[in-house]
Amino acid sequence: MTKSMVITGASGFLGQTLRKSALLEGWQILCINRHAIDGALAFDDPRLESHLTMFAPKVIVHLAASYGEEAKGEGLQANLLLPLRLLKWASTQANIRFIAAGSFWQFGDIETPGPVDMYSASKQSLAVFLDYYRRCERLDCYHLILSSSYGPNDPRGKLVDYFVNAAKTKRSVNLGHQDKHFALTDVRDVASAIMLLSSYSAPLPLLTYRVRTEQLWTFERLSRLFEKLGYTLNVRYSPLNNGIMEIIHPNDEHIPTLPDWSASYCLEDYLRARLASSIISEPHGNG
C-alpha cells in the first residue's frame, strides 16, 4: 500500500526535517506552502481539494504557522483558515489521519492560563475544531503540543543558537525573566514523533498529546551547561516590556506524552558539536 503524506509549512524548519524523514521511510509527499514553488501547492490554491483528491493522502500534517503581527491579519490563513479547509475535505474521505501541530503557548502560564497572543489563540481555536471533527465527523485527528525546538541547520536564530553565538563571540546574553522555565526538544525528535503517530495502525484514545522532553530548563541551568563545556556567559536579565506576555511556568504538564515516544537526542551533545564548529549563525533574538 502506498504511503502518502501532505505537509503544510513544509518549507519551515520542522517541515523540512519531517519531509526528509518521511522520504527516507518511503512516503510520497505533497507539500503545501505559502507560495507554489518547487512543486508545492499554495495555501490559497483554488483547486486545492482537487489536488488532494488526486494525491489521496493517508496522513495530513499541518505545520504551517504565522507569528507576531502577521498572525493578526494574513497569518490567519496559515493558522486557521487553511487547516479548516483541509479538515473539511478530509472529513469527506475515508481512512485519513489528520495531525496538527499545537504549541505550549496556547496554554499560557500556570498562574495565568490561556492563549497569550493571536498565534496561540488561533492554535487554541483550531483545537476546538479538531475536537469537533474527531467527535462528530469521526475524523481520526490529533493535536500535538510542541515546545521550543533546536537542531542542525536551524536558520531561525532561536534561544539555543543565540546562546551558542554569544559563547563564540563573547557577547552578552540579554534575556527575559530570570525564573523562566522552558523545554527544549531537538527537531529530529519532533519529526520522529510525527512519523510515529503517522504509522500507528489503530486510532489513539485522545485528541491531544505532548511532544517535548520531560526536563524543563532555566536560563541559569542552561548557562551552567555552557560552563561545563568550557564557556562562561555574560548573562543579563530584563523582563520583557514589548507587550508580549512571558510564560514563566508552562501550563502543559497535564497533557500526556505521545505513547511510545521519547526523545533520542541530547542537548549537551548538540551544543558540544555546535561549539566545536566554526560556523556562527546570524542571531534573530532570544525567543
TrEMBL record:
Pathway terms, separated by semicolons: Bacterial outer membrane biogenesis; LPS O-antigen biosynthesis
Pfam families: Epimerase
InterPro entries referenced in this protein's UniProt entry, alphabetically: Epimerase_deHydtase (IPR001509), NAD(P)-bd_dom_sf (IPR036291)
Domain NAD-dependent epimerase/dehydratase residue range list: 5-197
Domain of life according to the entry: Bacteria
Family, similarity comment: Belongs to the NAD(P)-dependent epimerase/dehydratase family.
Name of the protein: NAD(P)-dependent oxidoreductase
Organism: Shewanella xiamenensis
Organism ancestry: Bacteria, Pseudomonadati, Pseudomonadota, Gammaproteobacteria, Alteromonadales
